Fold this sequence. Notes:
The complex is a heterodimer.
Chain A: E1 2-4, H1 5-15, E2 20-23, H2 30-38, E3 43-46, H3 50-64, E4 68-72, H4 76-90, E5 95-101, H5 117-121, E6 127-131, H6 137-149, E7 155-161, H7 162-166, E8 168-170, H8 190-202, E9 206-210, H9 212-217, H10 220-230, E10 234-236, E11 251-254, H11 261-269, E12 272-276, H12 282-285, E13 296-301, E14 315-318, H13 321-331, H14 339-351, H15 364-374, E15 380-383, H16 387-395, E16 404-405, H17 416-426, E17 432-437, H18 447-453, E18 459-464, H19 469-478, H20 494-500, E19 504-508, H21 511-522, E20 529-534
Parallel strand pairs in A: 2-3, 2-4, 4-5, 5-7, 6-7, 9-10, 9-12, 10-11, 12-13, 13-14, 15-16, 15-17, 17-18, 18-20, 19-20
Antiparallel strand pairs in A: 1-8
Chain B: E1 2-10, H1 15-25, E2 29-37, E3 43-51, H2 54-66, E4 70-75, E5 81-92, H3 98-107, E6 111-115, E7 119-126, H4 128-139, E8 143-148, E9 152-155
Antiparallel strand pairs in B: 1-3, 1-4, 2-3, 5-7, 5-8, 5-9, 6-7
The complex binds thiamine diphosphate.
Thiamine diphosphate binds next to helix 16 and helix 19 of chain A.
Amino acid sequence: MEYTGAKALVESLKKEGVKVIFGYPGGTTIPLYDVLYDDKDIKHILTRHEQGAAHAADGYARASGKVGVCCATSGPGATNLITGIATAHMDSIPLVAITGQVGTALLGRDSFQEADVTGITAPITKHNYLIKTAEEIPQVVKEAFYIASTGRPGPVVIDICKDAQMKKAEYKHPEKFEHPGYKPTYSGHPKQINAAAKLISNAKKPVLYVGGGVIISGANKEVFELAEKCNIPVTTTLMGKGAFPETNNLSLGMLGMHGTAYANFTVTDCDLLIAVGARFDDRVTGHIERFAPDAKIIHIDIDPAEIGKNVRVDIPIVGDVKNVLKSLIEKVKPKAKNEAWLAQVAEWKKKYPLSYKKTKIIKPQYVVEMLDELTKGKAIIATEVGQNQMWAAQFFKYTKPRTFISSGGLGTMGYGLPAAIGAQIAKPEAVVIDIAGDGSIQMNIQELTTAVNNKLPIIIAVLNNSFLGMVRQWQEVLLNKRYSATNLCNNPDFVKVAEAFGAIGLRAKKPEDVKKVIQQALKSKDRPVLIDFVCEKEENVFPFVPAGQAINEMLID
Amino acid sequence: MKHTISVLVENHPGVLNKVAGLFARRGFNIDSLAVGTTEDPQLSRMTIVVHGDDQVLEQIQKQLYKLINVIKVFDLPPDKSVDRELVLVKVAVNAKNRAEITELVDIFRGKIADVGETAMTIELAGDSSKVEGAIKLLEKFGIKEMVRTGKIALLRGSDTK
Lengths: 557, 161
Ligand SMILES: Cc1ncc(C[n+]2csc(CCOP(=O)(O)OP(=O)(O)O)c2C)c(N)n1
């Protein structure tokens, strides 16, 4: 069958199971959009900014576990995707970004809306392609989806010249993809697994340190089994939220810069750290030499380059964490209870719980607690970046994977709303809430239109402190309250903004309003609701490990 | 510590950019980099001389493997490999030192590639120590210009990778 390149592209996407594309058209993607115009299987969601499209595809991927797809035109369209691609790259999210490129005859001549997309995206993609002929399209799409979704997932960019979309070529769907330069390791080395099992069976003070890799691999059940079998307390990273039920006794919540004091003490004091799908990020470790100083370290990860990158490791195991944990669970001896260790952990938990002081002004932590309570902990929470993100991590108890959707590695303000849109489209039945700051929400506020047009009942909970709160906190603690460029007292009226976009706008001014407005928002079934929670202005996130300190040296309140 | 690594990559446009970019953004120091085709027209071989301890070397290899276009990466320890570099050196000459320079070139089994009125271009090939030695001795005559290919290397004996 002869197809144009654009038609071949759409057919190939369908073969990969694509149901939805988030995008924004332009000159070099007109051929693609012309094919989409008649297509009945792929739904195109028109965002209002390409950054929104990239984050929405990313949120879709995080909520569903499938590959997210976004698309943009050449030049400014493609460069507007960059923050979204980099966000997905840092958090290992499977994303395929399709960009139009100028015609092959115009390449390299600074043509109108030309940008070197493969050059620009090389450091922020798992792989990228520049397609100059229609013939290549089916093979490249196959490869792109395979690479994006296997091994350590990540974004793949396909940059397609306009003439390659228009020319006709014989369409043949490649069934298989093999590449000599791409062979992820899935099962762990048995010798290493035996050695790890021995260490775990003999440890007196073990702790599991669980990252986003567990969610990607779908290994939450295995983490649970290992923890229960050996009585090992579990701390997760921000990306690992949902990998272990935070309602469980063995849960320590999150560790690191804004982790719980008890998680940080436990990790500092442990004699065995079992890192699973985590990468020893600086926000987790603090001062790296003083991180888990007395511990032996087992590091399980599918990406060999993560092992030994930041810390020395005693037992590295390269493999899919689900596979590795399965073998490990069989080999470890059940613990006759680590009573002394668990008692110590329990004491820290009792002595240093997460807390905040209630006053007559709305506390952002309280809003998050109420969101948890009123959704019975069952919502999908997307976040922006800053204090809102940390409170969303601390005060909502996550129990299931793919329910916490947040830009961890890149820390992208403006991520939450479009990501929530993607998540809601992936999970139409779920309650999806974007926990936002008043600064961040203004970075992609235009996506309210996308949510309204698609009748998505997303709740946007703006924890409005009239500040770029997280930066203000650092200025307060480290710079004696020199609030340079962080005061947002001239914010717009968010309720009116919401209404202007066709969304519902609500406001809570006092603690007693909080429950009421949330309940009201939860009633909306086909329209987004923005709630402006007028919060305490100078509330801080605690615990707080100032950058570069050891994680047991936190400011607790 | 210097290491010589051999990197087999797909012979595609853009691959050199990806490899060079990786070194730059991860802060790995390249001493030299030589690229060319191999016995297989689909593949190119890069020989890269890098600076760093064993941990850095390990990270470089692992990070290179993450590039999809990279097929194989391996270290070439000096005792297990042969290496060569080609250098062209333009040295200032005059009537008095011409003979001395020619003799020196002979000792290093170099060649005189070109002769001008006030300068001579010398071609030198060999392993690092030979090439470095020759350059050092030529310095006193005044090196006007120099170009080096960077090191290329293969494993000794019948082994291939
Ligand atoms: C795109 C982007 N620009 C700047 C920053 C730096 N930054 C981190 S947190 C923060 C403040 C966020 O303010 P707001 O959204 O109001 O949230 P709050 O911390 O008050 O909850 C800033 C500016 C960032 N993370 N992302």
